[in-house]
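note to self: dont lose this again. the chain is below, predicted strucutre after it. 204 aa total, dont forget to put it in the shared folder this time
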Amino acid sequence: MALFPMFVELSGKNVLIIGGGSVAYRKCERLLPYGAELTAVSGRFLPAFISMQGVRLLFRPFAESDLEGRDVVVCATDDRELNSRAAALCRERGIAVNVVDAPEESGFIFPALTLRGRLSAGVCTGGASPTAAAYFRDRFEEGLPDAVEEILDFMADIRPRVIAAVPDQRRRARIFSFLFNACIDAGGEPDAELVAAIVPELDG
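---
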């Protein structure tokens, strides 16, 4: 069965990574841009962890008390029994947990991610094939315009202004469509003259 894609706010969330190897390191890399407060616990860490900014390191084996106050936990050790035990403890406490070697024990799965400014997209195959997920993610990225970040910043800036200036919801929907298409045609933010022609209420 396919998994429902649900985007969550991670900024300021307390996230624990159990493990200090290459898999745990990659999970930290993927989470850091989303503003999570990361802690990793392991008796041994890859040297790369030492220079990673934004991750608190606990140089010891995982303990049950490490789960206190956590919003999200990622079990990323090479110890199947430890991963399973930690995941069970998370489920008992209602903590969202991902188990890297057992999708069936996970409450969520890491998708193949694309992050371009405000654009965040993920491709998930329900654990069937991370390789396939990465392939489809790469095909998606190839279709993105070069100026996607500029376009989305422009749309985010103008959206509340249009909502305030244009009371009719159907007309607003058409305006947003015209503005977005103008961005695509311009390869970025459209010029002010075109914007004024599309939304004369904003002129002046």
